[in-house]
Write a structure and sequence with these properties.
Layout lengths: L6 E2 L10 E3 L5 E6 L4 H13 L3 E5 L5 H12 L3 E6 L4 E6 L13 E2 L4 H11 L5 E5 L10 H9 L3 E4 H4 L1 E7 L7 E3 L5 H12 L5 E4 L7 H8 L4 E4 L2 E4 L11 E2 L4 H13 L3 E9 L6 H8 L3 E10 L2 E9 L7 E2 L11 H10 L3 E4 L12 H11 L3 E5 L2 E5 L8 E3 L4 H13 L4 E4 L11 H8 L2
Parallel strand pairs: 3-16, 4-15, 7-8, 11-12, 19-20, 23-24
Antiparallel strand pairs: 1-2, 2-24, 4-6, 5-6, 8-10, 9-10, 12-14, 13-14, 16-18, 17-18, 20-22, 21-22
This protein binds shikimate-3-phosphate (S3P).
């Protein structure tokens, strides 16, 4: 195999770029990750509400988190940005007692479900009108799951398509706390309700049949909110005084690390060291499954930053075997399933993924898009209503594939291209910048 070549045919639209990947002889080197996207959204939203100044280092550089920053600025929050493009530092002056201000225009969450849903919950509790929209993909993602529970708290919130989709119109007002069982294991909906609950009358109690990422709960506690987690239930008291601002450094994003974890495990000549990766147990399903598949993966130098655990991870070429993935682990690896599917293609035997129907309502219908694009590369892969079956051990061969404007699919296809025979050309590859703008450059650095 020769040197991996990542050609970039387009200098124009973010979503129009095409990348071509050739397999490489060796994958070796260190990966420095972008800041975690989920933690970054929470850090900037909560510090915008808090009293005082905060400095957020290693803020996630992707478009999703920058969309949240723009929305918060439009709501009157002063946010300065410095440092490098791949690891920016934000300086936030929290609104504190003064509170957020009505935006003079429609807020744009772009492609970011987390921006729309978290801000949707927050704005339902603020004393002014907000309208929030997003790009074509986000305007087709379900918002009824946000509107329905907020209405139980007394919110006045409406959406297009009989309250199913964005744009959302929110006439903010004082809400009431509630006791609610989350029907979907969604951290976005959980966080939206908690944000609304901060400003409500009375306590908010949430029950999670299956736990999801807990970054909001961790950060709220650190910033002085009265929040208790017991088993799968969370109890939050409304704020009696503003949150206390909290400077922090954002840990590396395990969802971005996943591309290199899988690449290292499936490539026959690989050793990759990933530095400063968040290993919050609500996010580490990808590590658990790769280990169950037989991956040679080691976790080193465990430490804490910002109330979150992180570590360095070393991954080496591995002989993988197929596994069954389903049940409570799904929310712990939902965003990593497209790249996990590559491990399934390369592994010996069958990999079955179930209970992952949520994949159908992500940036693309990830069951349909993974099956269609991986099939083009020669994978034997069948869709299930809530997952997929992958018959592993077949060589992949490069061809033209499409990201469907889904950042996670674009990067997963790049990992497939590293082990496929011949050239893999990925259309709309620049969409990776939604979560990981430096992905192509980092891939080029480790591919020899
Ligand atoms: C996220 C929660 C998950 C995940 C998304 C980020 C978050 O979505 O897929 O990429 O930061 O809360 P759901 O809450 O819809 O499961």
């Amino acid at each position: 195999m020769g040197k991996t070549i990542i050609k970039n045919y387009s200098r124009f639209s973010a979503k129009a770029g095409t990348k071509t990947i050739k397999p490489c002889h060796r994958l070796k080197g260190e990966v420095v990750l972008p800041g975690d996207k989920s933690i970054s959204h929470r850090a900037i939203i909560l510090n915008s509400l808090a009293k005082g100044e905060a400095r957020i280092d290693n803020f996630a550089p992707g478009q999703d988190c920058l969309a949240t920053v723009k929305c918060l600025r439009a709501l009157g929050v002063k946010i300065g940005k410095k440092g490098s493009q791949d690891s920016p530092t934000l300086l936030v002056s929290g609104a504190g007692e003064e509170g957020l201000k009505e935006a003079s225009n429609v807020l744009d969450a772009q492609d970011s479900g987390t921006t729309m849903r978290l801000l949707g919950g927050l704005l339902a509790s603020q004393p002014f009108l907000s309208v929030i929209t997003g790009d074509a993909s986000l305007r087709n993602r379900p918002m009824g799951r946000l509107i329905e529970p907020l209405r139980l708290m007394g919110a006045e919130i409406w959406g297009r398509g009989r309250d199913a989709f964005a744009p959302l119109v929110i006439k903010g007002k004082e809400l009431r706390g509630m006791d609610f069982t989350l029907p979907v294991p969604s951290a976005q909906i959980k966080s939206a309700i908690l944000l609304a609950g901060l400003f409500a009358r009375g306590d908010t109690v949430l029950h999670q049949p299956i736990p999801s990422r807990d970054h909001t709960e961790r950060m709220l506690k650190r910033m002085g909110a009265s929040l208790e987690s017991q088993g799968n239930s969370i109890s939050l008291q409304p704020l009696s005084s503003p949150l206390i601002s909290c400077s922090l450094r954002i840990p590396g994003d395990i969802s971005s690390a996943a591309y290199f974890l899988v690449a290292g495990a499936v490539h026959p000549n690989a050793r990759i060291v990933i530095r400063g990766c968040g290993i919050n147990p609500t996010r580490t399903g990808i590590i658990d499954i790769l280990l169950a598949m037989g991956a040679r993966l080691k976790i080193d130098n465990e430490r804490w930053e910002a109330g979150e655990p992180l570590a360095d991870i070393v991954v080496e070429s591995s002989e993988l075997k197929g596994v069954e993935v389903g049940g409570d682990i799904i929310p712990r690896l939902i965003d990593e399933i497209p790249v996990l599917a590559i491990a399934g293609c390369v592994a010996r035997g069958k990999t079955v993924i179930r209970n992952a129907g949520e994949l159908r309502v992500k940036e693309s219908d990830r069951i349909a898009t993974v099956v269609s694009e991986f099939s083009r590369l020669g994978a034997i892969i069948e869709p299930l209503p809530d997952g997929m079956v992958i018959y592993g051990g077949r060589a992949l061969s490069g061809t033209e594939v499409d990201s469907h404007l889904d950042h996670r699919l674009a990067m997963s296809l790049a990992v497939a291209g590293l082990v496929a025979q011949g050239e893999t050309t990925i259309k709309h590859a620049q969409v990776a910048r939604v979560s990981y703008p430096a992905f192509w450059q980092t891939l080029q650095q480790v591919a020899h």
